[in-house]
Amino acid sequence: MPAPSAHFVGREAELAHIDRLVGEPRTGPALIVINGAGGIGKSALALRWAQRAGPRFPAGHLYAHLGAFDPAGPVAPGEILGQALRALGIAPQRVPAGAAEQAAMFRSLTAGKALLLLWDDAVSAAQVRPLLPTSSSSVVLVTTRWRLAGLVSDGARFLTVAPLPEPAAVELLTRTVGEDRTGSDPTSTSSLVRLCAGLPIALTVTGARLATRPRWPIRRIVDELTEDGRRLRSLGGHGDISIQSVFDLSYQELSEPGARCYRALGLHPGPEFGLDVVAAALGVGRQEAVGMLDALLEANLLDETTEDRYKLHDLIRLHARQCAETDPDHPLLTRRIIEWYLAGVSAADRLLTPYRRKDPDNPFVSSETSIVGLSDRDGALAWLERERVNLVAAVRHAALHDQPLLAWQISDAMWPLFHYHRHHRDRLQVDRIAVECAQQLHDRDRETKMLRRWAFAHFDLAQFDMARQLFERCLRLCNETADGYGTASAVEGLGLVALAQHQYPQAAALFTRQLRLCLDSGEPRRTGLALLNLATVANESARHQQALTHLDDAAAIFASLGDVDPYNDARIRIEAGRALGRLGDRRPAREKLTHALADMRRLGSPRGQAQALHRLGELALVEQEFTEAHTHLTRALHLYEGNEDAEAEQVRQLASLIPPPDADPHRMP
Question: How many alpha carbons lie under 13 Å from residue 323 in its C-beta half-sphere?
Fold first, then answer.
């Protein structure tokens, strides 16, 4: 969890009240809703209690910012559940796509455990409810600006945080500026804490400003705040004119580079950001950007979450955006931010899927995008995962601000992230936006490409009717424009839907059509994929020798391409191992499957690993190696279920054929 404020004061009564609420009898988790105005210290109070009580929760502590006032909107419960599941040890690839499945897994993992959960800045009871564990040993703290009375039925207890009383506010200010200054002018000190409305964030910012000017009397700040307070509107509609004044004064004291950095941060579309995107937005080097950010940290206008990662308090972010609106360069600053994310996601795409067709258009208007440095597959995937929320926010922001080409290109380049780490909910949103952007651009090629992507997103969620509709819509558009490549891809999608629904003759006919289209258009890689699809149908139809013939042809094609598409090369070995095992050639079958499993692990593909383990378990079952079969099938089921793949049911049926340990070991079920 984040560290509480070093200047936390005046909340001893509230801490004791939380202790009492947590100690009340209950049948479920202790659910404490801490509400109050923005900047009043709700998060600091919750964090301080969590810090004190932490040792009482040996199973762990979970923290998430629910983003009630984030630029991209409140965080969906499914996103928070995904973060929580990953924090509890679930690999990203195994996190279910649906919120209901995520909630079920979360409840299962947390059952009976003594956990401390802090859900910060909630927007509604509906957002919080799926995030509640069932264990009565757990405590859940929720901070929010609203009462969230809907959580009463969930056993919630409520604590409304009031502004700091004057003595506590004076103490907080004194800790920052020194007792000699507050004590020498108690009248001005009293006036200052009243102007700050007892809000810790305003007192902290004001105190930091005074601390860096040791010769200033407190009355100078009081005079300035009083003048500005008569003419400035309240910040964000909260009615706290003095808060606007505090932020205005801190902003006015920044150097011009610091003020420009502050304005740029107000334009960032996501809730958290790294050092490099700030440098790109401002057109400066990393060290210069560090200096600007340090100035904002010094002024308490910025928080550092981890090394070289930052975020703004939601009230400060609103103020920074307000300031940015007056900057004539704000369109350029925003453009540079979005372009930096496009540069990064494009670099990752080139490393992870070099075989994919890349968009030929260059939308960059700035030259400060080369700072994104990714050198290997692992680094590229890690970067995509780290920036995922910002990438989705960048797509949404670009689409909403008349930059459809940028939005489309970021969406397109996010394919490797969705291919390897799934994130179905993000994918559905991003692909839908990309289709709309392509329509806005009046670009049929881009529209059909994203229609296919959108269809495959539904296919991966087993939403076959919607997938078929989108593939058919794509096929019609491709036929109208004589797009052979797109037609082949749409036909393939329809074939995969038929295959998933066990309509094997229809699937074979569609894949045969796909093969003919790929041969006519001279697309070797796509031809290899069509042969792989035909081999899969042949294996499903018990025509294993025919499957091997298709696979030999596909392997020859992929070998001619070099190490361009290792994922599908491994898929060929899986299908070949499956066919050989069914034909009785078990040793070469095992070799191919074991090799494919190692490749899928190296590539970080959970689905590919599950497929290899599935076939290894099947082979071991035929050989009556029941312990080995159980091991492989259990691991395959674990991966399939984590991705909500339909093959999980096939594995369950195979596993049911394994005889109990006390049965005749030589009797095949």
Answer: 25
